[in-house]
Amino acid sequence: MHSNPIEALRHQLATLCHAAQKGVIRLSTPCQVNDMMGWLNMQSVYPRLYWQSRDVGAVEYATLGAVNAFESLAALKADLVALNDIGGQQPDFFGGMAFDPHTPGWAHFPACYFLLPRIELKRHQGGATLSLNLRFDDRCPSAEIAQAHACLDALAAEQPLPRLQPLVYQREDRPSQQEWAAWVGLVTNLDHLMRTPKVVLSRETRLTTPQPPNPWALLSRWQSGAADCFHFGVQLTPSEAFIGCPPEQLYKREGRHLTTEALAGTTHRGRDATQDQALAAELLGDKKNTLENQCVYQQLLTQLEPLSSQVQMGEAHIVKLRSVQHIRRLIHAELHHSVTDHSLLSSLPPTPAVGGVPRESAMTFIRQHERHQRGWYSGVFGRISHTSSDLAVTIRCAHIDSEMIRLYAGAGIVAGSQPDEEWRELDSKIADIMSLLGMG
């Protein structure tokens, strides 16, 4: 990035008459950027976030710092209401939530965390825009302007990302394959199935290494082979990152219209087009996988019914990803006027595609048996604003710190699930990132 966009924002900041300002003020200028993650990687301001929805031609966002941060949905809702009452610009908030707020999560990731970024770099089909967000209604104007100047002063030019080197790792799976088989046996026991027809069990694969990869270089490579997926990265502190390319949407909201999906039921990709189609047809006709998908969409319909005036479900179809294919059904709803993102985020996650059915008894089983912390894996990540929101379920992800990469995968265990088949499915789900790490 050239220095002129930063100078342009400095000039706008210097000439801003803040006395009459209310709410969020956004100063923006066009800019040139070749590699959003190459830009993010060079910055010294935290938190650092990256977000791109899976829609074709979706806007890319890279953000730095925080004007405001919220560690509860109630606080975020109150702020959205306050900003709407003031009028003026309605900003985008970015962030995520853990899978289970009632268990200890990852050390530096709160159970819920959404922020209004200080700096926002946005790339769309028409070019790129660098923006500076300010807020005057509840803080000292001179301090706010000083913080904004300090953030602009700290901005660095983008550089090419470092190359990914195949690294040496020690691998440990939690649970072990033996423990996994025992869990699957418990879930598929007839008495347990009567009470809980589906439990999504997960595995943490720990790759210990003296030199973990650069998270932005890894995400950039992963993204290039993950079309039809969301792409996200977050560093709340310099020593830790959470990145991913999830295929699953939690929901997309445009005004009162909501889209969500039942994404459950999995098979691998074929060696050629003929075998691939045969596997897809087999998946759609398979009793166990159809049941798994049905568990998901029935619970979603039940959750959406009290929030909506109208709910429609589409036909089952196959989504093809790089290493696996899934059954998907789209669901459309018209929300009641009183329904907010707070209502949706309080009721929809964790979805039955990552938790189970019924939710409470499935969660009880997971809490009793899983020894690893899911943290933000199988939680939520995305963008929220007054007019529209877009959020993904955080699967197909990696949690990276200074000595370890943690990969996560889950499988829906229902009647007919076989432990060895489900274990192989877990390996299929981490195959993409393992190959990027030189381990595939």
Structure write-up:
This protein is 32% helix and 32% strand. It is α+β, with helices and mostly antiparallel strands and 440 residues long. The chain has two domains: 3-9 and 23-153, no CATH class; 171-229 and 247-436, Anthranilate synthase. Strands 1, 2, 3, 7, 8, 9, 10, 11, 12, 18, 21 and 22 form a twelve-stranded antiparallel β-sheet that branches. It comes from Halomonas campaniensis. Keywords: Isomerase, Magnesium, Menaquinone biosynthesis, Metal-binding. Mg(2+) binds at residues 292, 425. Its cofactor is Mg(2+).
Over all CA atoms, what is the radius of gyration? 22 Å
Please, what is the average pLDDT? Answer: 94
Anisotropy-based shape: globular
Q: Helical segment tally?
A: 13
The helix fraction, in percent, is 25-40%
Tell me the CATH architecture of the largest domain: 4-Layer Sandwich
Query: What percentage of amino acids are in beta strands?
Result: 25-35%
CATH topology of the largest domain, by name, is: Anthranilate synthase
**What is the assembly state of the chains in this entry?**
single chain
CATH homologous superfamily title of the largest domain: Anthranilate synthase
Q: How many domains, as an integer?
A: 2
Task: Let me know the largest β-sheet.
Answer: 12 strands, antiparallel
Q: How many β-strand runs?
A: 22
The span between the termini is 35 Å
CATH top level label of the largest domain = Alpha Beta
Structural class label:
alpha+beta
Task: Report low-confidence residues grouped into runs of 5 or more.
Answer: none
